[in-house]
Design goal:
By secondary structure, this protein is mainly alpha-helical. Helices cover about 45% and strands about 0% of the residues.
Length: about 60
């Protein structure tokens, strides 16, 4: 009985994980947009020379 319960639980987890991947295609409601302040619009987070780069965050001590 324990094997059956385990496999049922495993099947439920796999099914729920595969269904969750499809939720990323949900469109925003019409008229809605994400507000990004002007100070943040010009930031290049992938550029290591940028003030707020991911590179600086990942490689400096906290």
């Amino acid at each position: 009985m324990n094997k059956h319960t385990f496999f049922l639980f495993l099947a439920i987890i796999i099914t729920s994980c595969s269904n969750a991947q499809g939720n990323s295609d949900i469109p925003l409601p019409s008229g809605k947009s994400i507000y990004i302040p002007k100070e943040l619009q010009g930031m290049d987070l992938q550029n290591p020379a940028s003030q707020w780069s991911y590179h600086r965050m990942a490689y400096t001590e906290n």
